[in-house]
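Hi everyone,

Forwarding the result from last night's run.
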Amino acid sequence: MTFFIRMAQVRRGENNHYLGLYESREAADSAAAEFREQHPSTRLRKLESVRRNHVRCYDEETLLARRARIVDVIQSGAKP
């Protein structure tokens, strides 16, 4: 019989928070969601609809253009 154990880990700021081992992916995802609910981010997240899109970016070492998936969008320098 094979058992799969899932580790729940959340990155917050510069720190990784180890949340433990779980028997299912759903349990690990639930633990991560609970942690994020108890420790909300201070970043202002915007534009959920663009997360499936890609943008053109450049590799800093080779300077070659490529496509990258949008991971997060935040509002920076908002003025009243």
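The first strand starts at residue 6 and ends at 12.

Cheers,
N.
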